[in-house]
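Help needed: design a sequence for this.
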């Protein structure tokens, strides 16, 4: 099930809590979100919900987005066609991962193996207006516990408790999937993915079902099969933004490094020099 930590933690306390989580489990991936009220939904799910598309419309639109991205990137000489093919066939997942990192709405959710990268994305980009009385969140997802729950759901759906786990998991991943994708070295030229220690969950069900259900909603609805630590939410006080961004920068984690793009070099420089713009800073 989805487990919440009720208290609102400081940045330093959040680090301690994340270390506790990691000490208990070795299969944890993390996601930082600027607003603790946000659900775990992909950009494509939010878009298709807003447009009220049915499953056929979702499938068509996502395919058009992917092919449009691929063809335009090739036309601009930014990628090559063979970078996304395997034995002459399009590797859709590889293309999805690449496009996701460059802003295309997809049915993927970004995660990371690093709790510090997750903290960066939880704090980065919050304006002063958003920080007031706001809370960020770091989600901790135990994909191995999720896999166990998926096997139980697969066996339940097939009505066969004694079938092999692989068969039950295949049924789950075919019929109603939140397939977990853990390849981190198969995205040609995607420096961001490697620097962010990136990993994804892929919601195929978002395409084939007319649903607005987030990952946390899904796990909560099936709390009888998912362990309570499958998904843990840690809420963090955004008033600690300056301390967090500076501390993470000292670790080498800033926008310039993680986003690997000159546009974000400007953002990193701006963030790093903000202290010189504070009222107490005086050149005299």
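Sure. Designed sequence:
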């Amino acid at each position: 099930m989805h487990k919440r930590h009720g208290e609102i933690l400081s940045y330093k306390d959040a680090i301690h809590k994340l270390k506790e989580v990691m000490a208990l489990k070795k299969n944890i991936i993390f996601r930082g979100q600027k607003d603790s009220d946000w659900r775990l939904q992909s950009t494509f799910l939010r878009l298709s919900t807003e447009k009220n598309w049915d499953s056929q419309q979702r499938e068509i639109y996502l395919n058009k987005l992917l092919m449009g991205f691929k063809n335009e990137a090739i036309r601009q000489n930014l990628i090559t066609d063979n970078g996304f093919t395997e034995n002459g066939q399009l590797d859709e997942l590889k293309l999805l991962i690449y496009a996701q990192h460059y802003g295309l709405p997809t049915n993927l959710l970004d995660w990371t193996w690093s709790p510090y990268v997750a903290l960066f994305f939880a704090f980065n980009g919050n304006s002063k207006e958003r920080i007031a009385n706001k809370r960020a969140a770091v989600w901790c997802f135990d994909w191995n516990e999720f896999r166990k729950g998926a096997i139980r759901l697969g066996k339940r759906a097939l009505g066969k408790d004694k079938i092999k786990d692989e068969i039950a998991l295949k049924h789950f991943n075919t019929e109603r999937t939140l397939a977990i994708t853990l390849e981190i070295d198969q995205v040609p030229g995607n420096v961001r993915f490697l620097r962010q220690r990136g990993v994804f969950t892929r919601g195929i069900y978002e395409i084939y079902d007319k649903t607005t259900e987030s990952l946390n909603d899904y796990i909560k609805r099936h709390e009888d099969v998912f362990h309570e630590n499958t998904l843990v939410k840690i809420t963090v006080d955004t008033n600690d933004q300056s301390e967090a961004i500076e501390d993470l920068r000292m670790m080498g984690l800033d926008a310039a490094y993680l986003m690997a793009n000159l546009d974000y070099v400007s953002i990193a420089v701006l963030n790093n020099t903000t202290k010189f713009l504070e009222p107490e800073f005086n050149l005299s």
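The longest helix spans residues 55-75.
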